[in-house]
Structures are given as C-alpha cells and as structure tokens.
Amino acid sequence: MNKATTQVKFTIESDIVSAFKARCASEGISMTSVVRGWFSTRHPTRNTSVNTATRYHRRKSVQDMIVLLSIIMDSESEYRDSIPEQFTQRYDAADHACDMLAEAIGSLEDAF
C-alpha cells in the first residue's frame, strides 16, 4: 500500500517560528516530525454533526496547543532573559515573540 504525501502550507509570524525551531533544537527533535506527528494524530473527521466526542477531541487538541505554546513561550523567555544588554534588537524580538505567544495562548483559552 502506497502512502500519499500531502504538503501543507500555513503562515506563522517569524518570531513564533524561531521560538518553535529553538525549542525543537533544544529537545534534539526534528521540527518536521513534530508537525507531522501533530497532524497525523489530529486529522479532521468527515462527520459534520457535532457530538460530545468530537467536541471533547477538539477541546483536547486546543488544550494540547496551549501546552505546546506555553512550553515554547517558556523557552523563549529563558532565551530573552539570557541576552546581554548590548543586544537590544535580539531582546526586543524575543520580548515581542513572548508577547505574541502570550496573546495566542490567551485567545485559545478564551475560545475554549
């Protein structure tokens, strides 16, 4: 049985991507394998009716995303706090990434 491959393109702010790459590198795992694993375990169902199980799985997926974003935000905060004073551009970029991650987490928590 041959597996078909699908390419998925999505746009994310570069600060978030940098934080995600840094976290994957610090864990010694491939960024592609993380994304592939996330999509393979959380594929959408074709059933259009809303039932409790679907709602549960959807909320669980959002909670998983919140946890992942929190881990990335913690890593980015550690990076930001270790930047020497003379590198203000790096600090500002890391601070902005932390703000954006906190905003994304807040939006997800408000939604669910």
The count of domains is: 1
Proportion of β residues?
under 5%
Order of helices and strands: HHHH
SS-based class: mainly alpha
Sheet with the most strands? none
Taken from the alpha-carbon principal axes, the silhouette is globular
Q: Level of helix content?
A: over 70%
First CA to last CA: what distance? 39 Å
What is the quaternary state of this protein? single chain
Task: Determine Rg (CA atoms, Å).
Answer: 17 Å
Give the total of beta strands: 0
Name the average pLDDT.
77
* Tally of helical segments: 4
Low-confidence parts: 43-52
Summarize the entry for a quick read.
With 112 residues, the chain is mainly alpha-helical. It has helices at 14-27, 31-41, 52-81, 88-111.
Overview of the structural elements:
The chain has four helices and no strands. With 112 residues, it is mainly α. Helices cover 71% and strands 0% of the residues. The chain has one domain (14-37, 51-111).
